[in-house]
Write the structure tokens for this entry.
Amino acid sequence: MTEASEISSLAVVGLGYVGLPLAQEACRSGISVTGFDTKESVVSCLMNGESHVDDLDSTDIAGMLEAGFAASGDSACIGNADVIVICVPTPLDEDGSPDLGAVKAATRTVSEHLQPGSLVVLESTTYPGTTEDTVRPLLESGSGLTAGVDFNLAYSPERIDPGNPEWGLRNTPKIVGGLTADCTERAIQFYEQLVDTVVPTVGLREAEFAKLLENTYRHVNIALINEMAVFCHELGIDLWASIDAAETKPFGFQAFRPGPGIGGHCIPIDPNYLSWVAKRVGYRLRFVELAQEVSERMPAYVARRTQDALNRLKKPMNGSHIVLAGVTYKANVSDQRETPAKPLVAHLRRMGADVSFIDSHVDNFIVAGSEVPRILDIGEAARSADVVVLLQAHDEFLDSSELGEADCILDTSGKFTGDNVDRL
Ligand SMILES: NC(=O)c1ccc[n+]([C@@H]2O[C@H](COP(=O)([O-])OP(=O)(O)OC[C@H]3O[C@@H](n4cnc5c(N)ncnc54)[C@H](O)[C@@H]3O)[C@@H](O)[C@H]2O)c1
């Protein structure tokens, strides 16, 4: 490998929730950034100065364009970049197995433009072994170059938490693992230009596994607390108060709070990558399977609790008006991916309810091909509902006193109190 030179150019492949903040931080650091995305609408939206992700707005995109950022659907833009970072989706296929289609396609594209001395980093969440066993051979065969000799190869999991005002790309420590010690060094050199703290691992697989470990830990703990919510309700225990009390322990306890089910692109998906790779070596990850099962039951449980709330009002579910407040997968974002609000709507509809939603982050909410009517005004939502089910405590609901005026609120976020409030 040639002497490590200054890193001055970056190509980001995949300009979504992960790729775009990375491109922004690199622009801020004075690096020349291009972005390649196969989705024409993403490219045109960005080049028109608009953002399609929650954490960046049009002012941010304007700042990036001013700093020289350009998005393109032509892979030639990857050109001679010093660093190429792949941030494409890693979903599940129809059998629930990892779908590395986008990673493989993006890697093949990168291989066509790879130059000696470049650093290629995979940031997409995946199972251990992907960078070495899938990405490396594709890069080598497409470019004729050898990883660790002619170019550097590393993995760095993204820890971005959309909507989190405190922890962003720069102040969240960044894990990096390289194919060789030199690859790790080069990746450290790159990320130190963007983030406050870089945490090297001993190799690629350890960096890949660290991400799955973090998300599986979260997945299992959310399921544990969801199961506690069901059980505490039966016993008449206020779980929210117990969590607040337990949280005062300065060591050995991390608070998780129950909710209507898991959603988003990470928690419901990533642990499946782990169980899939475990199955390949003949091991069943029972914790992961159990967590999946418990959390998948939550939307049905919330539907049943809605029915219980109506029952106390001497109303039937059939024909009642249920308003879902906040239908995204978490508070203060617009991302509907894997949102538990969708299975909940399906359960409520099957029980005969007339379901509407209110959410300033979501224009259209479609479940099983049928649009859920939208209510725009919080006061109207509260007045017209037999039960308001608060799924995500967006700021708009907390900042308004109107939602609290509903006859009945089933609050899955633990934020509301009062005689008309039934908490999960
Ligand atoms: N969203 C999060 O909060 C988050 C957090 C940590 C890690 N991750 C992981 O990061 C990866 C990317 O997630 P995301 O949320 O940014 O996805 P996203 O869907 O928001 O963005 C991915 C982008 O990649 C583009 N793309 C797909 N195939 C491509 C190809 N072959 N070449 C170029 N572009 C292509 C898509 O058009 C899309 O714009 C996933 O593995 C995900 O699990 C996501």
